[in-house]
Amino acid sequence: MAERRLRVGYALASKKQNSFIQDSLVTLAKSRGVDLVRVDTERSLLDQGPFDCVLHKLYGDDWKRQLRDFKAEYPNALILDSPEAIERLHNRISMLQAVSELTIEDRDETFGIPKQIVIYDSDTLFDRQAWETLKFPVIAKPLVADGSAKSHKMALVYNHDSLNKVKPPIVLQEFVNHGGVIFKVYVVGQYVKCVKRKSLPDVSEEKLAVSGDLLSFSQVSNLATNERIDEMYYKLMRLDNTAMPPLNFITEIARGLRDALKLNLFNFDVIRDSRNENRYLIVDINYFPGYAKMPGYETVLTDFFCDIMYMKRKEEVESPDEIDSSVITGMDSCQVMRKILTNTCGDEDDSSLQVSALSREEKESSLRV
Question: Which PANTHER family match (predicted)?
Answer without folding.
Answer: INOSITOL-TETRAKISPHOSPHATE 1-KINASE, INOSITOL-TETRAKISPHOSPHATE 1-KINASE 1
